[in-house]
Specification:
Blueprint (H helix, E strand, L loop, with lengths): L25 H8 L10 E4 L2 H9 L3 H9 L3 H6 L1 E4 L6 H13 L10 H20 L4 H16 L4 H5 L6 H38 L30
Helix pairs in contact: 3-5, 5-6, 6-9, 7-9
């Protein structure tokens, strides 16, 4: 639909006008405006099932729920984990994971970095499981996006990329497909950043990668891992 912008002050001829849209994620842009912005600084990766993943993987049951409620973090647990555009978790996500780590007291000797290192280990485990569960890899999506972009440059009309009237149905479908794949690329890029950063943090905090004690290995690139994560004796 159309919209109207009203200026409160006079604007000199030739001046550039800009509109501030506020802090929006690519979820907001895709849902309400129909496009995706690469490298958006306000973008996030949401992990709504983070607590359930930790509970199911490590057998943290009702004790974990009670500890989260006692800490006043039940609303954060319901919200799930949040990674910012650089792959960094917010402090509330880490605090919930620290509470769960304290419940998993038997795991503490595996790491020498304390509860914060434990929270990082649990988050890394959840991120690796999340990555392995996705239907396609980041590399596959990048390859598809490159192919779609190449087809566009090879002669697709400009209006097709905008979904405007005048584009053929096939062009409009290709434009929508580019947007969908671009959205997946942005989200998976955040997740990949988080995994890489968490692995480096674990190396620094504990001197050992948590892939063995936590029973999760990163799937090989360009192939989806269908095998269930290995469980070690520390897991139920």
């Amino acid at each position: 639909g159309a919209f109207t912008a009203t200026l409160g002050d006079a604007v000199p001829a030739g001046a550039t006008l800009s509109a501030r849209r506020g802090a929006l994620t690519n979820d907001d842009l895709l849902q309400h405006q129909g496009y995706v912005e690469p490298g958006l600084g306000d973008d996030v990766y949401l992990m709504p099932h983070l607590v359930a993943q930790v509970r199911n993987t490590y057998g943290v049951g009702a004790d974990g729920d009670r500890a989260i409620r006692r800490a006043g973090l039940h609303h954060i647990a319901r919200r799930g984990g949040v990674l910012d555009a650089d792959g960094e978790p917010d402090e509330a996500t880490l605090e919930v994971l620290r509470v769960l780590w304290r419940i998993m007291g038997r795991e503490a000797p595996l790491l020498c970095g304390g509860e914060r290192a434990g929270a990082h280990a649990l988050l890394l485990s959840a991120c690796l499981l999340e990555e392995a569960s996705l239907a396609t890899t980041l590399e596959a999506d990048l390859a598809e996006l490159g192919g779609l972009a190449g087809a566009k440059e090879a002669g697709k009309p400009a209006e097709a990329a905008m979904g405007m009237a005048g584009a053929s149905r096939g062009d409009a479908d290709a434009a929508r497909r580019r947007t969908v794949v671009a959205f997946r690329v942005e989200k998976k890029t955040i997740l990949a950043k988080a995994i890489d950063k968490l692995m480096r943090k674990m190396d620094h905090e504990s001197g050992r990668r948590p892939s063995k004690p936590f029973g999760v290995t990163r799937p090989k690139k360009k192939r989806r891992s269908t095998a269930a994560p290995r469980r070690w004796p520390s897991q139920p």
